[in-house]
Design a protein that fits this description.
388 residues, three-stranded antiparallel beta sheet, binds glutamine, alpha/beta
């Protein structure tokens, strides 16, 4: 037999998705892979029902239906004051997962390096390797998840660095990058001529008083920023796999080619239905923020009452819980035991942190009150059941 690809040997299968399988196997409440168990907005699903009769049911344009891209461009201008050309600067993809991979394949050559803040959403490491590049990690240091400017510069000034991946608001640590931090990253990106690929899927899940800023809006950044985003989190439709890349025309043109050959296009009926969501007014986003604030308070309040140590998110919908007191050297084993003995699914921190000493597991709280209360009830036994 001929040798298999060396690139796919560089990483494991997704631990996040594996933990959903393990949670299902043990009948655990799945707080591992981040997705809601509540319904999407009714206006969107009602529209989907109409589309079952009216169509479209055939391919849309490969880089996305015209009305969908136009609605996206309007929304971007509304929230960020950015004028985006829906024909030249937007590519609709199958989730932000494809957006990120297509972006990476469009800018990286084999032998390039990519700077990634750690902890990081696990796809970035695999995407970097699949695009032929090498990841260079810069720590976001708990508990504040701040970074050392000199360490960042040392990474970004390396000859082979082509891009930096930012996740803002950040999965898994819940950091919302400040204007000062983004300005620093931007100044280094400009100084060393580096692309910034920013994953903004949690842009509308930000807790008071924190505010999300898109790095593309900073001076000199539009031309070097590739925004990867999706509708999954904003409209609670993770299974629809609707994402997009927003990038300068020259880069978007490359992304279009990669996307065309990878997937041909996102699902036409789903794009058509989702236009309804993209046209929602501000009250929808305020409601979403209030709903997530409620879920955050319910879950973190419950964890506080149970005496756990964990991170306080500024954005996104995750907490990292400190498990150092349980005496496990293997956090994957900890999460398997947690699903089996306690009945709650979590993701081991080692799938996010590059630093060898890691002492966290990740829970998400995008769940109905009943689900969160049942999970908290099960976690009330965790200290006894998980002690070795
Ligand atoms: N972003 C979500 C998480 O981190 C879902 C990941 C996925 O499987 N697409 O859990």
């Amino acid at each position: 037999m001929k040798e298999l690809s060396k690139r796919t040997a560089g990483f494991t299968d997704s631990v996040i998705r594996r933990m959903t399988r393990i949670s299902n196997q043990y009948g655990a409440i799945n707080l591992s892979q981040g997705f809601p168990d509540f319904d999407p907005p009714k206006e969107i699903t009602d529209r989907l029902k109409e589309i079952a009769d009216s169509g479209p049911h055939q391919y849309a344009l490969t880089w996305g239906a015209q009305n969908f891209r136009e609605a996206l461009a309007k929304k971007q201008e509304h929230f960020y004051g950015m004028k985006v050309d829906p024909d030249k600067e937007l590519v609709v993809t199958c989730g932000s997962t494809e957006a990120m991979m297509a972006a990476m394949m469009s800018v990286c050559n084999p032998g390039d390096e990519v700077v990634i803040f750690s902890p990081f959403y696990e796809n970035y490491g695999a995407d970097t390797i699949l695009s032929g590049a090498e990841p260079i990690y810069v720590p976001l240091v708990p508990p504040t998840f701040s970074f050392d400017a000199d360490r960042l510069e040392a990474a970004m000034k390396r000859d082979k660095v082509k891009a930096l991946i930012l996740c803002n608001p950040s999965n898994p640590c819940g950091k919302v990058f400040t204007k000062e931090e983004l300005e620093l990253i931007a100044s280094l990106a400009i100084k060393y001529d580096i692309y910034v690929i920013t994953d903004e899927v949690y842009e509308h899940i930000v807790y008071e008083p924190f505010q999300h800023i898109c790095i593309a809006t900073l001076p000199g950044m539009r031309e070097r920023t590739i925004v990867c985003n999706s509708l999954s989190k904003t409209y609670s439709i993770t299974g629809w796999r609707l994402g997009y890349v927003m990038a300068p025309a020259e880069i978007a043109d490359r992304v279009k080619k990669v996307h065309d050959f990878l997937t041909v296009g996102a699902a036409a009926p789903l794009m058509e239905a989702a236009v309804t969501g993209l046209c929602f007014d501000d009250s929808y986003y305020k409601g979403l923020q209030a709903h997530y604030t409620h879920m955050k308070e319910l879950f973190t309040g419950g964890l506080d009452e149970l005496g756990f140590t964990f991170t306080r998110p500024q954005g996104a919908y995750y907490v990292l819980m400190d498990i150092s007191e349980y005496g496990y050297s293997d956090d994957l084993l900890f999460c398997e035991d947690l699903a089996r003995k306690v009945g709650v699914g979590a993701v081991p921190g080692s799938s996010f942190f590059k630093e060898p000493e890691n002492r966290y597991i990740r829970f998400h709280f995008a769940k109905k009150d009943d689900t969160l209360e049942a999970a908290l009830d099960r976690l009330s036994d965790m200290k006894d059941k998980m002690k070795r």
